[in-house]
Amino acid sequence: MRIETRFCSPHIHKVEDGQELTSHVHRMIQEKTAPGGEFLGWLDYADKLSEKQICEIEEIADEIRQRADVLVISGIGGSYLGSKAVMEALCPTYGRKPEIIFMGHHMSSEELVEVTDYICDKEFYVLVISKSGKTLEPAISFRLLRRMAEERYGGDSSKRIIAITDEHSGALRTLASQKNYRTFSIPADIGGRYSVHTPAGLLPMAVAGLDIRAFLEGMKEGSREYSREFLEENAAYRYALMRSRLLEEGKHVEILVNYHPKLMYFAEWFKQLFGESEGKENKGIFPVAMINTTDLHSLGQYVQEGQRILFETVIDILKPKADIFIPGDEQDLDELNYLYGRDLHFINRRAMQATALAHMEGGVPNIIIEVDKLDERNLGKLMYFFMIACAASGLFLGVNPFNQPGVEAYKNNMFALLGKPGMEIETAEIEKKIHAIQEG
Amino acid sequence: MRIETRFCSPHIHKVEDGQELTSHVHRMIQEKTAPGGEFLGWLDYADKLSEKQICEIEEIADEIRQRADVLVISGIGGSYLGSKAVMEALCPTYGRKPEIIFMGHHMSSEELVEVTDYICDKEFYVLVISKSGKTLEPAISFRLLRRMAEERYGGDSSKRIIAITDEHSGALRTLASQKNYRTFSIPADIGGRYSVHTPAGLLPMAVAGLDIRAFLEGMKEGSREYSREFLEENAAYRYALMRSRLLEEGKHVEILVNYHPKLMYFAEWFKQLFGESEGKENKGIFPVAMINTTDLHSLGQYVQEGQRILFETVIDILKPKADIFIPGDEQDLDELNYLYGRDLHFINRRAMQATALAHMEGGVPNIIIEVDKLDERNLGKLMYFFMIACAASGLFLGVNPFNQPGVEAYKNNMFALLGKPGMEIETAEIEKKIHAIQEG
Questions:
Q1: Nearest to B74 by CA among B19, B21, B1, B127
Q2: In this model, does residue B246 exceed pLDDT 70?
Q3: Yes or no, beta carbons of B430 and A357 under 8 Å apart
Q4: Is the confidence metric ipTM above 0.95 for this complex?
Q5: Do the chains contact at A94 and B353, CB–CB below 8 Å?
Q6: Distance CA B196, CA B84 (A)
Q7: Which candidate, A122, B110, B234, B253, has a CA 20 to 30 Å from the CA of A405?
Q8: How many angstroms separate the CA of residue A299 from the nearest CA in chain B?
Q9: What is the predicted pLDDT for the residue at A16?
Q10: What domains sit in chain A, N to C, each tagged with a CATH number?
């Protein structure tokens, strides 16, 4: 399958003069000398994953598919968005079996009560995904789920809990060893947002009945195609360079646009990937998403005529998985008969082309990424495309695309406000600030 | 109930010097002399809705609740987001009866095939919401649904279809009269994004089992509280003025933040309301959303350290609908025992305060909107708060907050590309442009 990129913004069409910079960035990535280069394990992870490891994932997935009504997954960020994105994109909306419910990516008490009530009379398995085991949200949800499983399944509960965590150390690794849970490892050299093709992404996909071998093939195809140095041979580098040019021109916000509701969580995955990789040192493009044509009736007005700080990256799916044809109507009061016999996918793509043109002419450049069709292989390749483009984008910008130093600020405040032992001085200080705000 | 606003950005704390402008805008709204003043029917619509009209909505809703497994709603934009926002916020996640499925807000063939397959062996009703009946997405979906209903229920199908449309004219009004559908009216002086408290919003809510009288009471409370002229008495005007000050300071993007996954579609409603009202004449704040703590593990890094073009408006829900307590654990490997016995809502709100402080100190001003608890009444009032704040914001900015001229551009291109009769010249011209882009 092919991924084509088209740039609908004539005045910045040429990227060839960026080859020198691109070659420099290319070497930093491939030789792992980039800032954060110790987290480039994802580059060739799909190639290195052994047949034995894939079989183990498939075997446990089969067991869960046979025995569970519900798989509850406790994970947040990269331990949640990758597999969620792929499952929502490829699984049917109705009648999934087993159901896969995510918990541990929020702290809404109402929602947690509902999930625990819902699963209490169903056969369930628990999958906990956390590198350290101490991230607050999945740790809380896993404490609740572990207790439920132990009350429900007694000594057998350890067979119903699977942990994906650091290979050697951490709270969850220790607990898993003690309790004899089955485990998989998140490699130490892969960060959460680049981990969709590790067991963290693959096991949930396999439980959902998806073909993880095809997904890995797509990843491998991506790793071949997007490890080429030259811009004319590498669409991912062209896309990355185009983004950086657009940012220089004052396009501060990138909208990932698609015309398929099933890609909603793909867009969420994209937002984490780019937002967390680029948003540092007061730099970076702010990533947002639109699902059209829905959002043309919402944000469409703004995109057409609001502040000219936007550009769009549009995912164009060429072939649909299923299609439906417009029926005729004698009276034609709704004036749709001129579309009689047309397939809906054709109409949807016409809407996409019409919108790209209107937005471009309104001052919003469009980058169109063509994908043959939505399946495991193509999605794997598309994700690799974005991962390598994201790494290159961050390096063009001059930031480390593999760390996330800024997430500590709120966490430190939060642990202090929660009275974590050892933080007594911070607690007093931050309590005072919060009080001042609330009185202010 | 009260809605409080707190501004966590000391240097722009004072808004009192905006009273003169506010009074001017206030009069334009209340005397309906604002640009687009002919679309201010929503201001006192809740007061004018008669007992008879409310009873009619409740009666049809009861009938649907008794007889249908599924209600399929065909609507887009304001005919979709308001009721969807309220239902997702207030209904349980699991076990809804009847199921309410939205169609007609996209043109994904795969999704439409799935929905029609899913309902074909279920008892269903159809609700079509469209002022004209000619908006492409709901018109297509309604053609499909109408045919399904006629094949399934024959002569009785007209009893299973309800239309909400213009009171007097339009394709859907004509069809409904011919077919003898039961109908409700969307008032001519209310635009889609301000229509959540009209039958377009109320009937779906009532079918979902929600208390529409309480919702309307909240709207009325809002219309009393936010029709006050003076800033110190009107939190909605204070919020609107603060937004316009933030925009002047280079905060181009507003993030509506909440800590409750159930408010995801409330945020979508907010995005349409503000984006479509303000985004014109190259002006306006670009509205986006974050659902925390989920998105702190995604966009959090960017908010903390990316470009300083952001501000946040945080919805702080004081009391939860249900709560859950942190259990103890002998080993405490996850180091959560210091939270033993704490309720999760407390922890979630602490995360909220910690984040607001961290972001504010990082250069992202926070406006915090406190709401007692999530129920019909409070949500009605909160929506009114945002509606009046949005009208005032648009007028502060100098735009007409009630039109949406920019959505015609893509529609014209689309109808031309689809070969709509009478557009032959445009079709040739736009085909040529699209071809040039695809070759380029």
A1: B127
A2: yes
A3: yes
A4: yes
A5: no
A6: 10
A7: B253
A8: 5
A9: 73
A10: 3-37+217-397 (3.40.50.10490), 39-213 (3.40.50.10490), 407-439 (no CATH)
